[in-house]
Design goal:
The chain is α+β, with helices and mostly antiparallel strands. 43% of the residues lie in helices and 21% in strands. The chain has 10 helices and 10 strands. A 6-stranded antiparallel beta sheet has the order 1-2-9-4-7-10, covered by helices on one side. Strand 5 and strand 6 form a beta hairpin. The two termini are 34 Å apart.
Length: 284
């Protein structure tokens, strides 16, 4: 067996709204291989076939071994790293869609505990992940086949969930759908009305949902999200401030600067200057 290998498929088009596979594959990593810290715009399940490594998220570090499964949530900063002495091999699938949140909610994955110690069913998990990858292709029929294999995996994880089933968590599903839309469309000048239309609820109802679950309004969440992405661009690129404003969905540079100062207590240029001074500091 080679020291390392990588078999991966990345979908060119996400053709299904309910559930769509973004990528899938399996890999034997080299010693100490690391991804992140960073964020994904979709869910990403990794299942460890052999070896071990580390998953870091939410200020916690998990040491994981063969048979364990871990999940990356969209827009949540995380990193993972192969052990230097016994680097892991894993299979993975990345996905998103309107049904993704409700499915994840009915497994044992949660933001508080994104790890499954499922050694008793590990062979079946790997088999189902491999089936997703083996169905790959760029036709609509292939997309349906991959999504069917993903449904099979999710149904299996739901069936073997040890926790309380959470079917019917409709309100949280609406909020998650709205958040996913914002994550995908924030760079365009979308409004709260656009978010509500996509989610399939009225603006007033979406407001009540966000206040109840997120403790803020949809507008506040959208603005905070855009400012967060702007901070990344200010710290990682040399784009002019005006270009960054347009890149995160602001059509008015002055309004962008006003909102930025409200959330960060400094101007975009001042923020960039501070990031330049701090560059090189450890981020984890």
């Amino acid at each position: 067996m080679p020291d390392t290998y990588r078999y991966a498929y990345y979908a060119l088009d996400r053709q299904l709204n309910s559930l769509s596979v973004y990528n899938a594959g399996y890999e034997k990593c080299h010693s100490g291989y690391q991804w992140g810290p960073g964020v994904r715009d979709h869910y990403l399940i990794h299942h460890i076939i052999r070896g071990c490594g580390y998953y870091r998220v939410g200020g916690r570090e998990y040491r994981l071994k063969a048979g364990d499964t871990f999940l990356l949530f969209p827009q949540v900063e995380s990193s993972y790293q192969a052990d230097r002495e016994e680097p892991w091999e894993y299979a993975w699938v990345g996905f998103a869609g309107n049904d993704a949140y409700s499915m994840i909610t009915n497994t044992d994955f949660s933001r508080e505990h994104p790890i499954l110690d499922q050694s008793a069913i590990s062979e079946e998990v790997f088999s189902k992940l491999r089936a997703v990858y083996e169905a790959n292709g760029n036709t609509f029929q292939d997309a349906v086949a991959m999504t069917g294999a993903l449904y099979s995996l999710m149904g299996f994880l739901m069936k073997h969930s040890k926790g309380e089933k959470k079917f019917g968590n409709l309100q949280a599903g609406y909020v998650e759908r709205a958040r996913q839309y914002i994550a995908e469309q924030y760079s365009y000048p979308i409004t709260v009305e656009d978010v509500a239309d996509y989610t399939g609820v009225s603006r007033s109802y979406l407001f009540r949902l966000f206040q109840g679950i997120m403790k803020q309004s949809p507008k506040e969440y959208l603005l905070e999200y855009r400012i967060g992405r702007a901070c990344q661009l200010l710290g990682q690129t040399n784009l002019p401030v005006g270009s960054i404003a347009h890149s995160v969905g602001f059509v008015d540079n002055l309004y962008f600067s006003k909102v930025f100062k409200k959330y960060k207590n400094c101007t975009p240029s001042e923020y960039r200057g501070r990031q330049g001074q701090n560059r090189g500091d450890a981020s984890w």
